[in-house]
Amino acid sequence: MGWCHRVAGRALGIFSPTIITSFGYTNVDAVLFGIPIHTAGILWGILLAFIADRYQHRSLLICFNIFVGTAGMALAGFDLTARNGRLAGLFLGSMGTLADGR
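Given the sequence above, the corresponding structure tokens read:
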């Protein structure tokens, strides 16, 4: 499962400016939005690692994190109503793929 997280996290990290640009934002906005998106993913990972070490439920947290990442990517890919909702989905996708609960 860790390998799947790494592949998805790297793909999101590399292509997130292109994805954000496809939402209708400018190139500068895409680069600037990438900073808080990845920061949220890193902070989420630190929180999950703390909880996993504290309560010794790593597999449960990894499964929860996969759900968060999948829901975020679904929201980013299929929410056609507003670009802000798609951006929120990218935040959730980043949180789900950059943190693997180890």
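The chain has one domain: 2-98. Try to locate this feature in the token string yourself.
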